[in-house]
Every structure is written in C-alpha cells, then in structure tokens.
Amino acid sequence: MSQLFEPNRALSKQARIKNMCEYKELCIQADEDFEGYWDKLAREKIEWFKPYDRVLNEDNAPFYKWFEGGKLNVTHQCLGRHLNSRKNKAAIIWEGEDGTRRIITYLQLFYRVNRLANLLRNKFGIQKGDRVVLYMPMIPEAAFAMLACAKIGAIHSVVFGGFSADALRDRIQDAQAKLVITADGAFRRGKPYMLKPVVDEALREGCECCEKVLIVQRNFEDIEYVRGRDYVYNEIVMQESKYCEPEWMDAEDPLFLLYTSGSTGKPKGVQHSSAGYILWAQYTMEHVFDVKENDTFWCTADVGWITGHTYIVYGPLAMGATTIMYEGVPTFPDVGRWWSMIDEHRVNQFYTAPTAIRLLHKEGADAPSKYDLSSLKVLGTVGEPINPDAWMWYYEQIGGGKCPIVDTWWQTETGGHMITPLPGATPIKPGSATFPLPGIKAEIIDENGNPTPKGEKGFLCITKPWPSMIRNIWGDSDRFVKSYFGDCKKDGKPVYFSGDGAMYDDDGYIVITGRTDDVINVSGHRIGTAEIEAVLGHHENVAEVAVVGRPDPIKGEGIFAYIVIKGTDSISEEVYMIQELNKLIVKEIGNIAKLDAIRFVPGLPKTRSGKIMRRILRSIAKKEPITQDISTLEDPSIVEKIQNLVQF
Ligand code: PRX
C-alpha cells in the first residue's frame, strides 16, 4: 500500500466538498434518486431558455437522451449570463510563445464571438447543424471560433494542428465540413511554423464539401491565397455587428465532434451534446478543481484534444473563471517557462499531463525553485497513468507539499472527469485516480459482469449513463454501439466499456492499468495501432506489419513496429526503410505517430486462423517472458526467431 496524503486542511475548509462524508453523502443521494440528482444539478447550473420536460430518456438505449425538451445556447452559459456581474473580468489570458500577451474580458469575448458568428452566418452561409473544421494553433481565435460555431448552432470539429494534411482531409470528408477555419501558422520553439499550407494540401482533392477557408493571421508569414475560397479573418471580421442572435438549441443537439482513435479502422467522430456536456464541464470545474471567483486556471492541453475543449474553453468559461492559454512549448526559452508563467499570472489551479511532468522533471529538476509558485492551490494530471516518481516531484517541487494532486481519469468519449480525487476531501496516493465522482457509476468487472476482487485486473465500465457521455459516432451508429456497448455486460445488459483495464487496490482505490485494446497512449495521445499498421502496409516493400506499444520513460509508451519486408535483407536497405516508413507516417498521420523502433522480422506469430498474436509481440517488445501458450501458433518457432532479432 502506498502512502496516503491527506487533503490540506486550509483548502478543505473552503472547498465545495470538504470531506469524505460529504462525498459519500452525494454518492448515496445519486444512488437513491439517480434522475433527481442530475435534475437538481441541471436546474441549478444551467440557465435554460426553455426548461426540459424529462431528465433521462432510456427508451432507445444506448442512445440515451438527457434533458429532453430543454432549450439553451452554450454560449449564453459561457458568456451571455456573465455579462451582468463579470463583464470586465478577464475571460482569457493568452500568452504567445514570444511573450506577447493578450487579455480578453468577458464583454470583449462576447463581442468577438458575436462578430465571428455573424461572419459565419452572413458571409459563409453556415447554418445550424453544419460542420465547421477548425485547424488552429493555440491562439484566442481558436476559442472564438469554437464559441462562434456554438452561438449559431454549427457543429465544430477541431483537428489538432499536429495532424498531417491526409489526416485533416479524412476528418473534413468524414464530417462533410463546409468551412475550415485556420491560421497562417504560429510560433513553436522560437520559430514560425505553418498551418495554412497543410489545409491547402488537404483540400487539394476529394473535399468538395468544403467551399471556403477562413484564415486568422498570427505569424504573418507569406501564404498563398485561393481566390474566391480563402478569406482573411483580420480583414473582415470587424465589419460584422457585435451582437448576434443565438440559435436556441435542443439539449441533445450536437455541440461538437472530436475525432479519436479506436482499436480498429479510421478515427471516430465522437459526438457530444449541448446541455449534458456543458453541465458536466462546469460541474467538474467547480468540484474537481474547486475554482473560486478570483482564481486563475491553467490547463496546458491543446484545444485540439478533449482536455482543451472542456478545461481551456467550455468549463472555465461556463463557470465565469479566468482561463490561461499558452501558445508554445514548455521548454522555450528554457525549462522554466511554465513555472515562470504560474508565477507571473498567479495561477491557482494547474492541469497538465504526466508526460510533460516527466520531461520537465528530467530536464530541469531545479527550475521550479527559481519561481514563486505559492499561488497554486490544486494540481491536476490527465491522459495516462502517472508514475510515483513524477507524482512526488510534482507534489513537492511544484505544489510545495500543500496542493492536492487530482489524477483525473476520463476520455474523449466521457466529455469530462469521471474518476478523480476531490481536492478538499479525498486522501490521495500516487498512481491512483481514487474514486468515481458522485453520480458516475464506474465499476471494474470481469467477463461475466461480476465485480473483480481487490488486486485483480478487470474491465473499467460505466454502468449507468451520464449527461456528458458520447452520443454517437458521427455517421456510424452501428460502430458506436459495437465499440462501446458490445464488449461488457452487467446483469445481462450491455454497459459502456472504456477500453481500459483497472483494479481496486488494498484500500479500494481505483488504479488504472491501461488500455486493454489495440490503442496505445503516446505522450497522453491516443493512437490506434491499426491506423499505423494501415499506413505502413501501404509501402510497397512491406509484406506484413504489426504495431504495439512499448514502455517509454518520458512518453509513457513508444511505438514499436514489427515488419516483414519484401525483397530485401540488407542492413543498408533497412536503414533506408526506417526513414521511408517514418516519412509515410508523418505524411498520413503526423509527427505524433512517428515510430520509436522498428524490427524487421521473418514472420509474425499467428494463430492457425491467421490472427496476429499481438500479446506475444507486446511481451517481446517489453522484454517480458512469454506466458501465452505458443503451441497453437501456425509456426511456434517464429517466437524465438523474433526474440533473437529484437536486441535492445
Ligand atoms: O487509457 C486512458 C487514458 O487516456 C485514455 C483516453 O484518452 P483520450 O480520449 O485521448 O482522452 C485523454 C484526456 C481525457 C483513457 O482511455 N487516461 C486518461 N486519463 C488517465 C488515463 N490513464 C490513467 N490515468 C488517468 N488519469
């Protein structure tokens, strides 16, 4: 059993949930009257244009409907309703990598969003339900664009700026987006980098749906413009009115799509709702980070991921907080950049990923001591398991031993936090996300749907619906049902399976053990091995390929590819092939999926029916002993041959 850290007393006293009794009390309330629990929250937290008639409709499960009949606009929740009391409060404090700063108040943000919303409506003919792809750097205009879409009921689909033209094209096509909003580029590691040429490349063929491109000028580098298609935001947005009539949306109308990797096939367009999503974004901001009126909140994610959606844009703004947005890398101009920003902006809650903590710990263990980090109250992590070493450094060196760490487990599909400590209540321990939030029925079960005993791994399932859950996979309802409700059952009924394994430790704390499917987690980014295999398989010299994850001290997992090559066995050819294959990956997916290691092997371990035994390949990559029965393989001798070839 690892050490427990009790909550900081001073923080607990002022926290919304002050101790475990209060936490348990809420869990009991939610258990005894599930709908009543959510009903109370939805009434209290959301300013409805029209109240809903029904809390939860389960008639067509797993296509659950929450708050049916209700009407709202998410931007009213995030902006409009704050104007009476917070119009001159900083909504977004942005820092460019070059040190440029912009402070945007709630009133200014309201106007910015309205002008852009009008532009989308009037100039580009965007209407309720249309899809708009955002391919943006970390600049405030990314938030303006998300909110402008929400204002007029358009569905945004933000594509992470690190994805390649091919990956962007796939997402534009799948969503049949009418418009792309992008920027010339931005700054990274002190140099300009470009986005617009990637959009040009993506639109070169097969994107007839996309008629126009709106470009925000950020780095002012030269770019090419396509006449009649491309428009410069900076030149035309101010011509629009600063007032805009919102589209009043049904609670269940989609707010956004966000593509994420699954274990098979192409990335899935995870579809989120309006009311349920915003309710949970706000509620978790309040309870998990315990943000107060004058606090400054900083989440270091990119807006291209769900963490950026919920905890840079929608969550902080829904609760009227001040959110920090930073353009660049954590190591520019040096490894103290983030700590200097915490000092400078007096940040109160700081939320980042274990991979960044590991990197900053390794590269600059003493850097934090040069800054005043005393404003911090709560620290958070997300995206992957955090190792005890990194946890302790974060706790002691960044939090000064007084800030609880909320290790938040959740997913693109869950919309917001699911399993996490509450900073004023939960005794925390390194490596555990602790307990589910009240109202969230997270259970670890075996293949028969029974709870697993302490210390035994099982499937992490959510056995009741929750308001911010994924509603569908865009354009593929069958895949939605199969991907999430096809694997696990409880009491004979399909339940949401996260794809993660987990176990209860001796104290009943939840420990996430990682994905059980063919998804790997590289620097907190989810990547499907099937996607990488599909790309590598396109190369003319690749006969067969299998990709697995391998532990990496900084990235969490690295990408390890086994390749059966056609027509060559010379070493120089292999070196050339490694470069070739990585080029292909960068072109078709992006840098985030670059291979960490490749081994050329004479064959792959397959069952007699031809299924590749990835578990064996995972064990070999991790240098673990093989525990699986290999006698049933088509060619058992292949295992030893591969083991001999995999030298580290
Ligand atoms: O495996 C889990 C891991 O990240 C996956 C979700 O990835 P994504 O949809 O990209 O969302 C990341 C940000 C919410 C999960 O299935 N994961 C997320 N948080 C944690 C985690 N693993 C361990 N501990 C966490 N706190």
UniProtKB/TrEMBL annotation:
Top-level class of the enzyme under EC nomenclature: ligase
Entry keyword set: Acetylation, ATP-binding, Ligase, Magnesium, Metal-binding, Nucleotide-binding
Domain AMP-dependent synthetase/ligase: 82-466
Acetyl-coenzyme A synthetase N-terminal domain: residues covered: 23-78
Residues binding ATP, per UniProt: 383-385, 407-412, 500, 515, 526
Pfam hit, one: ACAS_N
Molecular-function GO terms, alphabetical: acetate-CoA ligase activity; AMP binding; ATP binding; metal ion binding
Residues bearing the modification N6-acetyllysine: 611
Record's protein name: Acetyl-coenzyme A synthetase
Originating species: Sulfurospirillum deleyianum (strain ATCC 51133 / DSM 6946 / 5175)
